[in-house]
Request: fold
Amino acid sequence: MNEGIAKVAADAAQDRLDELAGLAEEVIGACQRQGASQVEVGLSEDRGLSANVRLGEVETIEYTRDRGLSLTVYFGKRKGSASTADLQAGSIRTTVEQACALARFTEEDDCAGLADPNRMARAFPDFDLWHPEPMDADSAVAIALRAEQAGRDLDRRISNSDGASASQSESLSVYANSHGFIGKERGTSYSISASLIAGEGDGMQRDYWYDAHCQRALMDDPEAIGRRAAERTLARLAPRDPKTGTYPVLFSAEVARSLFGSLVSAVSGGALYRKASFLIDHLGKQVLPRGFDLLERPHLLRGHRSAAFDSEGVATRESYLVRDGMLERYVLGSYAARKLGMVSTGNSGGMHNTKVACDTAERAAIIAGMGTGLLVTELMGQGTNLLTGDYSRGAAGFWVENGQIAYPVDEVTIAGNLRDMLLAIEAVGTDVDRRSSLEVGSVLIGRMTVAGGD
Reply:
């Protein structure tokens, strides 16, 4: 993108952020004049473009332009919330009146209120998340067509397509509260994906690939994405059923992060104070094997979830969630922290960039050491019970025999208990998937039940 055009776009975005910040201050003042003792307001504006193609033809082109205001007021310990997608003065006035009216009639909650004013962020570094390079419809369509065509051209067994897409978006947001805090954020995102079908009739198989980044120049080429989708699809042809039993299971990097996502959910405030977690009272106890760390790094340049503050304005900081296998802290916003008699960890709205750190090995070496087992490349269903830790998911991937991939498998079920599974991790691969805020390589679980055909 031309540097002059980029500077104009950056200046315009900053000017609009300043306007939104001024509007937030006006809203806070209006609420206080109606008697609110505390106020917080979020303002956002997003715009983007997405193009979807299939079999060389344009299916959809979608332009989006959204804006919104979310408002929460406190009258002592009584809380009221309202929102609007219209930022005109009349709509904002109505939203303020609705939030205040609700707060006057709700029950008191001793844990309600803004975060501690002493915890508000004071520094706002630039995380290099703003790289505006707007696409027009023709450019987005051309990118999607290139991805799909490269995949279709790879092999004559690619018989059909589920389509390809290219998208771009820009987002601006402001969070402000009556402590005097005002936080501004802006970011861009780009993505390309392709989903292809191989085979005929009952033997058809489908798979996909994608890339996503805040900077278009760092994306994989559309052709590379299409070819990767085709290779994954072809590898799934002619699946067989493994024999039901107990085996080692290797989760590929793109699905392994779901294991740690479930761990994070189980140690999050809402699940803990509701007594709906299998990790209640596990602070200071072992939840992963020795030598494993989960490190939250909110301040990474170009990180998927980099932020100087959480959704309450609390300053974020680098810290361990798990160190040497031991749970060091919970994942808390202010409300959950008060319910538990603790303090916020700067995680209102969730975790930020999180890295699994441990000794690693090449995936090929891990597979070679498995003997007989299952390599999972896709998970289906939502079969994780956070209350008990019971885990049962549909899966697809590849059967491993004598330390080598033998054949694809489809529609098998893997089962275990997540507490035991996490402690039974035997190896992590160097093949880290960096397309998410939770970075981890392939993960080998020593023993799980695999249900297939007998």
Q: What stands out?
A: The mean pLDDT is 95. Residues 158 and 198 are 4 Å apart (CA to CA).
